[in-house]
Specification:
Blueprint: E1 7-14, H1 25-40, E2 49-52, H2 61-69, E3 75-77, H3 85-98, E4 104-111, H4 113-116, H5 141-156, H6 160-174, H7 188-193, E5 196-198, E6 201-202, E7 212-220, H8 221-224, E8 232-242, H9 256-267, E9 276-279, H10 284-294, H11 302-305, H12 324-328, H13 335-347, E10 360-368, E11 374-382
Parallel strand pairs: 2-3, 2-4, 9-10
Antiparallel strand pairs: 1-7, 1-8, 4-7, 5-6, 8-11, 10-11
């Protein structure tokens, strides 16, 4: 069964907070739902589906949130595959709506990881049985991505300057986003002068840490036509995982290769049809590797592809026009904001950072760590 154009993003909302010690994660999520429903002209009484997960939420946390907002949905989804979860939730909601399991599904997220001030991405955290051969050696999140960057540089000659261009472009976009956490311009030289966190990644090659949250309202294409905002159609979706148990350990083969291929096939569009993309940017190398695996350039060409202003909002292939996780926000799970910004771009609501003639957008979320086990979820969206 094809899902193409059967469901729409009808409402979106990004919580403006970047540091909220006075709020709980549930409060941020609830306020975001209210904002997304207002965006499309619906109320909580219209909602009969809920998808949610979050940092610090237990496997049954979604039930507590239903109690918190007094909701009794017909459909729930608490899939947790890391930062790509909300991209996957969007696909799952579209499938549920097409199958008649619900009519209006809200995807919600709230996080207070910055104001909590706990250690993030530290060695040995979150150990599962499958990590038994790695966790004893204390791998860190940044260390796993540094291995990917080291391998890419060794294999293809990618340079620190090329990675730095990603961070510079994200900061340019953040400068035009009034709610971005960091808006002061930076240069390639600034990135290279920032301290090394895990070689070859510098401080400004790494995502920021913030509080934050957001929500999406997803409904049928038929119902979306009569709502407040122009609908954004879901054309194609894909999900995948990569892990060491496959019997090989290629740091440059990531889940995006599988999920992206599925999304393009199901959407019936080509790479040349994509007007802008929202790519998970936990680190600068994440963008380079993801673009290669999605097929926008050949393996080894990612460094050159991200250079020369190509990724700017007014460039040949704009990405992360909100400033990304490198400059705008990163509450440890950023997939929500990828979908929100892509939707706003397709509606033409992004002001000075608006991509010209934006009609089709790609969203790709990454969960886990590229150098270890990780997930990938891809969406292709259209305003027609």
């Amino acid at each position: 069964m094809s899902l193409s154009r059967k469901a729409c993003l009808a409402g979106v909302y990004e919580h403006p907070t970047r540091f909220a010690p006075d709020k709980s994660m549930f409060q941020i999520a609830a306020e975001s739902i209210r904002g997304a429903l207002h965006d499309c002209g619906l109320t909580i009484k219209d909602v009969d589906g809920l998808a949610m997960t979050g940092v610090g939420m237990s496997g049954m946390g979604i039930m507590g949130f239903c109690d918190y907002i007094n909701l009794n949905p017909n459909y729930v989804d608490s899939t947790s595959i890391g930062g790509s979860s909300f991209v996957a939730h969007t696909a799952h909601a579209a499938a549920a709506i097409a199958a008649g399991l619900c009519e209006v599904c809200v995807v919600a997220f709230g996080s207070t990881v910055a104001s909590f001030r706990g250690p993030m991405g530290a060695g040995g955290g979150g150990a599962d049985t499958c990590d038994q051969f790695e966790i004893p050696f204390g791998p860190t999140t940044v260390g796993s991505y540094a291995m990917v960057a080291q391998r890419h540089m060794h294999e293809y000659g990618t340079t620190p300057e090329q990675l730095a261009e990603v961070a510079v472009t994200m900061r340019l976009h953040a400068s035009m986003n009034p709610v971005a956490k960091y808006r002061n311009p930076i240069t390639v030289e600034d990135v290279l002068a920032s301290r090394v966190i895990s070689s070859p990644l510098h401080l400004l090659d790494c995502c920021i840490i913030s509080d934050g949250g957001g929500a999406l309202v997803i409904t049928s294409a038929e119902r979306a036509r009569n709502l407040k905002k122009k609908p954004v159609y879901i054309l194609g979706t894909g999900e995948a995982v990569r892990h060491a148990a496959r019997g090989q350990r290629d740091f440059l083969d990531i889940a995006a290769a599988q999920s992206g291929k599925l999304a393009f096939e199901r959407a019936g569009v080509k790479h040349a049809d994509i007007d802008m993309a929202m790519i998970y940017d936990s680190f600068t190398i994440t963008v380079v590797s993801t673009l290669e695996n999605l097929g926008f350039c050949k393996p080894g060409e990612g460094g050159a592809f991200v250079s020369g202003g190509r990724l700017r909002f007014d460039g040949e292939f704009p990405i992360n026009t909100d400033g990304g996780g490198l400059s705008s926000n990163h509450p440890m799970m950023r997939g929500m904001f990828l979908v929100i910004e892509a939707t706003k771009q397709l509606r033409g609501e992004c002001g000075p950072r608006q991509v010209r003639d934006c009609q089709i957008a790609l969203v790709h979320g990454t969960g886990g760590s590229l150098g270890l086990r990780h997930s990938g979820a891809t969406l292709i969206l259209s305003n027609q």
